[in-house]
Specification:
By secondary structure, the protein is of the alpha+beta class. It has one domain (about 1-85). Helix content is about 25%, strand content about 40%. It is built from two helices and four strands, in the order βββαβα. The protein has a four-stranded mixed beta sheet, with helices on one face. Strand 1 (about 1-10) and strand 2 form a beta hairpin. Helix 1 (about 45-60) packs parallel to helix 2. It comes from Legionella taurinensis.
Length: about 80
């Protein structure tokens, strides 16, 4: 499967919501399967990215991943090193 990692934020009233999610790409649609509410503003760290991807790997296995898609927030050296290890 192809995976997409993304983070989005919005307001619910005065509360700021910051969600980091991992989705399966299927026929042009990203279907969220794992996510994490971040208790901070801004982007994710390599550690947070690895933790979310580890949840997928522990459930479905690393061999099920054909590719991972992400935008400019995700070119993280720690994440890339972990993925190729």
């Amino acid at each position: 499967v192809y995976l997409a990692i993304d983070r989005t934020n919005w307001y619910w009233g005065k509360a700021k919501i910051n969600v980091f999610m991992l989705s399966i790409c299927y026929e042009g649609i990203a279907i969220p399967i794992f996510w994490r509410l971040l208790k901070k503003a801004g982007g994710t760290t390599g550690k947070e990215q690895i933790e979310l991807l580890s949840r997928f790997i522990n459930t479905f296995g690393k061999e099920s991943i054909q590719g991972i898609l992400g935008d400019r927030e995700f070119p993280n050296k720690a994440l890339i090193a972990w993925l190729v290890a």
